[in-house]
Specification:
Layout lengths: L11 H14 L3 H28 L3 H9 L18
Length: 86
């Protein structure tokens, strides 16, 4: 496995929490951060692949059919567009 060095600046509170969790796991802070980043990369890539697959199966006609099912009337409280987007 090739490795790269990357200087990382963290807020002190996050660094201290990560160091504590790494110690609890019995690994170095570097190993714990690398594992956390790998986990996040996996989650984001998996979600992206899932959403791209779902989008590829969609069509404009499907979207139009879905919009036809929306009842006419004002939005529910809290669902209004922000005033700068009206």
């Amino acid at each position: 496995m090739s490795k790269a060095t990357f200087p990382l600046k963290l807020p002190l509170s996050i660094k201290e929490a990560a160091a504590r969790l790494a110690k609890d796991d019995g690994v170095s802070l570097n190993q714990w951060i690398a594992s956390a980043v790998a986990q996040k990369v996996g989650v984001v890539e998996t979600a992206g692949n899932f959403l791209r697959g779902r989008a590829a199966a969609a069509s404009a006609d499907d979207f139009s059919d879905m919009l036809k099912k929306v009842p006419a009337g004002p939005p529910e409280p809290g669902d209004e567009l922000p005033t700068d987007r009206r």
